[in-house]
Amino acid sequence: MKPRATVATETDRAADRATGPIGDGGSGDSRSGDSRSADSRSADSRSADSNSTAGDRDTSRKTRAATRTRPAAGGITWRLRLHRDRTLILMTLPAIALLLIFNYIPLLGNIVAFQDYDVYDLGITGSPFVGFDNFTRIFEDYRFWQVLINTLVIFLTQLLLFFPIPIAIALLLNTIMSARVRAWVQAVVYLPHFFSWVLVVTVFQQMFGGAGLVAQWLREHGHEGFDLMTNASFFKFLVTAQAVWKDAGWGVIVFLAALAAVNTDLYEAAAVDGAGRWRRMWHVTLPALRPVIALLLVLRVGSALNLDFEQILLQRDQVGPGASEILDTYIWWTGIKTGDFGYAAAAGIFKGLFSVAMVLGANKVAHMLGEQGVYSKK
């Protein structure tokens, strides 16, 4: 058995033979190997840098090309959008043509409001310009302001008495469990919408006129009859009743569609919490209808001066122009019928600007109440 020192010496010799002799030759080979290794790493680094630079240039070119072909907002280009929606665009072209022909091109005729318009001899191109003289005539006409006030009174009466009725009918129909009964009631209420105003006025004449069914029944039972169709003080309520009978069913459809979108889980959760029918209607149904109510109310206020022309014109002679005259009928009688088209056009422009102001004001109130209205708040 060899001593430990001898074993350690033999191990050192084997290590020396493996690494080579220690001297100048061994040291030079080591430095030469290190230099070659450094040069190889430097060349690899330069090659990697060159490849990285070329890759960056390619990426930059691709990015610029993609930026030129891609819309700034992100998405498809307008040409691709037109190609994709070409069928829908073709379908809407007839409606756009009708709007242009009957709504927008006639707006060019408003120029007669600033002319002494002669429809028979001079025409639009030959009539002399008078500036704002027609508007001055309107503002100085006391009869015009009386008619404007009368129009607003009739509008407010219809807004207070007519507008809530479709909501009430929709809530009533929504509580009816039988689908057959609900459909029958809705059809009966909606049917008068298809009647003309001539038929509606005739029905009311046969019911509430001096020789109507109600007056005859009262006379047969010893009471004095009445004639609501010629009562000037009752006229605003009469036209409101006619509007309710004719158009309430149309408004019911809109509110029923809004009620159909209400989640039934809300009613179940309210019932579990102990809410009765009235509490569920107050806390679930009416909040669901509130956006639709606000929208229709804003639109209704915007059309404050757009009462039914035919309805009023048919009954104007029965009660007299003092109670039945509205802005549309006044423009008809004093402007169009007498040939004063400049005056009529100026009154129409005033009516349009007034309606726009009413829409903006009502929409502002809707925003203050937390509703969207006609357009959302920026």
Describe the structure.
The protein is built from 18 helices and no strands. It is an all-alpha fold and 378 residues long. It is globular, with a radius of gyration of 43 Å. Helix 8 packs across helix 12, helix 12 packs across helix 14 and helix 17 (327-336) packs antiparallel against helix 18 (341-368). Residues 1-12 and 14-39 have low confidence and may be disordered.
Roughly how many Å is the radius of gyration? 43 Å
Helix count, DSSP H or I runs of 4 or more residues: 18
H/E element order? HHHHHHHHHHHHHHHHHH
Distance between the termini: 99 Å
Query: How much strand content do the residues show?
Result: under 5%
* Oligomerization state: single chain
> What is the total tally of β strands?
0
Q: Which descriptor suits the 3D outline? A: globular
**Low-pLDDT residue intervals, each spanning 5 or more residues:** 1-12, 14-39
Helix content: over 70%
Main sheet attributes: strand count, strand direction, barrel closure: none
Structural class of the secondary structure composition? mainly alpha
Mean pLDDT figure? 80
